Records
---
Amino acid sequence: MNKYLCVLGVLKTSTGLCIKNDMLSWLNPIYNVLCIEQDPPGKLFEYPAIKYALRLSAESNEPVLYIHTKGASNPYTWYQKTIRKIWKREYSNVDNVKTMFEISKTVEKPLVLCLYTGITKATWFNAWVVNPAAAQITLDNIKYPTDCNRFYYEQQLFNDDKISVVGLYKNDCNDSDIMSQFIKHGEK
């Protein structure tokens, strides 16, 4: 099986490194994973790993999964672990992954696929597959952390009219929609 490309953003705390190892256990069988590590306290947020994922997609002309060690700086919130469980279930399922990457490869227009989208194209939970066309547009316009607020990378990164952001399961979710998904999947 050909492996898919993945960039894993890692906060190098003891918790972040444990989460990294856990995530690599289920990412490595399906993906060629490149880890982009950042020293704590992680003042650059997701910027280094996202920028690397965008550049990799644009330069390789291949879709790339971006994902990070969610909760590495705040591991005690229940939903951090839940989100990682959902990621594991969805992004380690070979059929799901094959579908996401085939769609990303065959659609020529700029496209980002994630499990759920928020209102105004927010990509909930910071895990998504970007195709090369969307990667190039975003790479040309990505903001450095000092030029944006903390939530820019989750809520506004792909807010360009040329880029389609598609939720595989649901689009335009709000916080209560997301909570209902957790409950539906019995993750709380």
---
Amino acid sequence: MDDRIELTAPLPGNALAAVITFKAARPGRDKTVPRADATHAELEVTGLDGKTRTRRVELAEADAFLREAAAIHERDRAFSVANAGRRERATAERAERSASVVPRCLYCDVPREHQGRRDLMSLGVADQLARTDDLGRARPESRPYEEYACPRCGSVELFRAGVLDHPLGG
């Protein structure tokens, strides 16, 4: 094992970084040595506040810190792998849903063409429009939609943006 081990987050105590340096007691001052020759260790931890704190620890405490850091990294890796699998499945399901929707004109029975994303403005709830004295309180909202138009008759079909992958096949 090395005489110095540098660790990165996630770490015990929500530390951002840590360095464990193995030391041997020598007259006058400690000397950095390999783990096998060490009598103690120096644990340098950088916290969330960005401050670095250094303290002398026993070898057992340094080893426990390393084991806990390894366990945290393993849990983090397992979570990342599982999360990547969930994302891949969700992406595949979304692509499958998008592929199954074919926008066709109800009148001409031809495929509609994707015209792009449109932001439609509204004044909010209908109650606001009925009260002319309160019209100043209306807060306009913008909502994105994907527009598909029939090349023959010009009729339009809207899809709420973000639900399916656009443009759809057809």
---
Amino acid sequence: MDNILDNFSRDANIWKLEPQLLAVKEFANLYDQDKSKDKTRSSKIMWGLVFLIHPDSVFRDLDERDREELVAKDYIGDKSFDFNTVKEESVKLRELMLTRAKRSLDAWETKLRERDKFIENTPYNIETADHLDKILKNTADLWKQYKSIREDVLKEGSMTIDKGSKTPSLSDDGRI
């Protein structure tokens, strides 16, 4: 599923491109409940989830809420669409699409964004100065930990099995 975005086009039906998704109960339920022609509504919702979750999505660096609003309005075509209504599908897709290391990295990125927003929204004054100084002092350690997890994810990516179930050579991987 790493390359699912390679198959995307605006009119692509995810159920036709990735029919194995229907083997998963949560996705099959979404599909079965869809009364639109050719299941286009649920396909757009699933693509929307891919855009929100996949590490190679162009929307990845946006804040979660901004990502959701943009995808709901501009792709799904329903600015009031609430991704909380497909929370089970989102959790399952995250499990299937991301390795454990990538999920850990994703959690770190989310918390670092929250932390940045907290720092940005906290005024620096006599009441908050000590607290903010402590937070800022810990920044280097947090980034070290994040970079360590990121390195694990990158190593994991270089150890993947390519088509034909063989381990890529060093030259295939670009390491020599």
